[in-house]
Each structure stands twice: as structure tokens, then as C-alpha cells.
UniProtKB/TrEMBL annotation:
<dbReference type="InterPro" id="IPR032823">
    <property type="entry name" value="BCA_ABC_TP_C"/>
</dbReference>
<dbReference type="InterPro" id="IPR017871">
    <property type="entry name" value="ABC_transporter-like_CS"/>
</dbReference>
<dbReference type="Pfam" id="PF00005">
    <property type="entry name" value="ABC_tran"/>
</dbReference>
<keyword id="KW-0547">Nucleotide-binding</keyword>
<dbReference type="GO" id="GO:0005524">
    <property type="term" value="F:ATP binding"/>
</dbReference>
<dbReference type="InterPro" id="IPR003439">
    <property type="entry name" value="ABC_transporter-like_ATP-bd"/>
</dbReference>
<dbReference type="InterPro" id="IPR027417">
    <property type="entry name" value="P-loop_NTPase"/>
</dbReference>
<keyword id="KW-0813">Transport</keyword>
<feature type="domain" description="ABC transporter">
    <location>
        <begin position="2"/>
        <end position="250"/>
    </location>
</feature>
<dbReference type="InterPro" id="IPR003593">
    <property type="entry name" value="AAA+_ATPase"/>
</dbReference>
<protein>
    <submittedName>
        <fullName>ABC transporter ATP-binding protein</fullName>
    </submittedName>
</protein>
<dbReference type="InterPro" id="IPR051120">
    <property type="entry name" value="ABC_AA/LPS_Transport"/>
</dbReference>
<dbReference type="Pfam" id="PF12399">
    <property type="entry name" value="BCA_ABC_TP_C"/>
</dbReference>
<keyword id="KW-0067">ATP-binding</keyword>
Length: 262
């Protein structure tokens, strides 16, 4: 599905992404882990067109999508969520979903003047679709709530719901569990699994919660210092010497190993 080849993103002399290469398989849920500052979010931003690469290549199903802006990638089914949810706080939860699809009839002045019936018909269809999404995510009781009043976890569910309003092919989720209580995190995990199995969504997930990663993701990719360090199952990643050192540092790694052998 997505292939990243020798990708670089530099900020002056700082190499946030430094020659990363990886593949995200079609219909997989791939985990992306690594210590803070490893370059994970920057990698997401480059793939999703938020930042241009310094060099390297990104392809989707063989098509070169390197450096395409987010709105073009959106129409190709490439979506990205952020660590902090970006909702329209003064609009209702339902309205936040209904505005997602592009090229709506009501966006043109001609239609607004002369094709009101078409606009009403389209809005009714979007409302029905939004309600189905909210029911799928088990937050249909919040349809009329202002989105700004939602909890952190509910806002993450709303962001996931936005991806369901369009023909998403691959979704990049950035720390979906940040600031979310365990109950809602399980609900988010259930929704991701269902979207993957029932609708064929491909996901790549940045997350620090290893229980969440272990439940959802195979394979798991570990980054450190802008590079891909290791790839495999979560158990393989956790046993990898380079990964242990990247997370703990050499001194602490040796101490842990000494205590384990004592």
C-alpha cells in the first residue's frame, strides 16, 4: 500500500527523519513506536503532505505521491489525525461529520440560489451517513452535543468518524490514546479493528501504550533518531537489543540486564 524509500526531512542541521525506509501493507494495522524525538510524527507529516520531504520517495500502490499536498492526498484516500484533536468546537458532533465530504452542492452560489432541493437532498443523505457513523462508534447519543464539549477520548472517536465520511484507504493515527481513559481507549481500539476487518481500512498507528499496540498491531516498526531501527511482532521488537538501548540508554540497559541476571 504505502512504501517509503530513503526519506529525509531536515530542519536546518537537525535531521528529524534521516533516511527512513518502510512499507505499510494493504489492510494491515501497523504500529509505529519509538522514544520521544524519534521522528515518528514528522514521518507522518511528510507522508501525509503536511511537510515536504528534503529527499526520498513515498508511493501508494505504486503511484508516486511524494510531496503532494494534503487536499490531493485526501481525495486519494490518505488521511491523518493528530495528537491533539482538531474539531469545529462550536458545531455539533453530527455537523462536524457532515462537513467532511468535499464538492458538496451547497458550496456553489448557483446551487444555493437555484438548486435548493438538490442541497436539501444531499444534506439529508449526509445526515443519515453521519448518524450511521456515530452509531458505529457508539457515540450516537452525542450527535447534538457541541464538539468542543466532548472529552479527549470522545474527540478522538470523532476524528476517527471523519475518516468514515469519505472513501479512506489508509489512515495515519498519531497517538490516538494520548489523554484518553482506558474505557474509551478500548472503544477506539474496537472501532479501529472493525474498520480494518469489515471495511478494509489500512492503519498506521503511533502510540506509546504498548498494551494498545499489542492488541491492534502487527507488524510493529520501531524508529530512533530518524531511522527505522527494527520491524516485527511486538514480542520481537521488545526483545530487540537495539530497541532496548534506544528506549533505555546503554547505562540503564546494562543495569536492567544485570538485575535480570541476578
Amino acid at each position: 500500500m504505502i512504501a517509503v524509500e530513503n526519506l529525509h526531512r531536515h530542519f536546518g542541521g537537525f535531521r528529524a527523519v534521516d533516511g527512513a525506509s518502510l512499507r505499510i501493507q494493504d489492510k494491515s494495522i501497523t504500529g509505529l513506536i519509538g522514544p520521544n524525538g524519534a521522528g515518528k510524527s514528522t514521518l507522518f507529516n511528510v507522508i501525509a503532505g503536511v511537510l515536504p520531504p528534503t529527499s526520498g520517495r513515498v508511493t501508494m500502490a505504486g503511484e508516486d505521491i511524494t510531496g503532494l499536498p494534503p487536499h490531493e492526498l485526501f481525495h486519494k484516500g490518505v488521511l491523518r489525525t493528530f495528537q491533539i484533536a482538531h474539531e469545529f468546537s462550536s458545531m455539533t458532533v453530527r455537523e462536524n461529520l457532515m462537513v467532511v465530504p468535499g464538492a458538496q452542492a451547497g458550496e456553489t452560489l448557483w446551487n444555493a440560489w437555484f438548486r435548493r432541493a438538490l442541497i436539501a437532498q444531499e444534506e439529508a443523505a449526509l445526515r443519515k451517513q453521519a448518524d450511521e457513523v456515530l452509531e458505529f462508534l457508539t457515540i450516537d447519543h452525542l450527535a447534538e452535543e457541541k464538539a468542543g464539549n466532548l472529552s479527549g477520548g470522545q474527540k478522538k472517536l470523532l476524528e476517527l468518524g471523519r475518516t468514515m465520511m469519505v472513501d479512506a484507504r489508509v489512515v495515519f493515527l498519531d497517538e490516538v490514546g494520548a489523554g484518553v481513559n482506558r474505557t474509551l481507549l478500548n472503544t477506539i481500539g474496537d472501532a479501529i479493528i472493525r474498520l480494518n476487518k469489515e471495511r478494509g481500512y489500512t492503519f498506521c498507528v503511533i502510540e506509546h501504550d504498548m498494551d494498545f499496540i499489542g492488541r491492534l498491531c502487527d507488524p510493529v516498526i520501531c524508529m530512533a533518531e530518524g531511522k527505522v531501527l527494527a520491524e516485527g511482532t511486538l514480542d520481537e521488537i521488545k526483545a530487540n537489543e537495539q530497541v532496548i538501548e534506544a528506549y533505555l540508554g546503554t547505562g540503564l540497559k546494562n543495569k536492567v540486564q544485570a538485575e535480570a541476571g541476578a
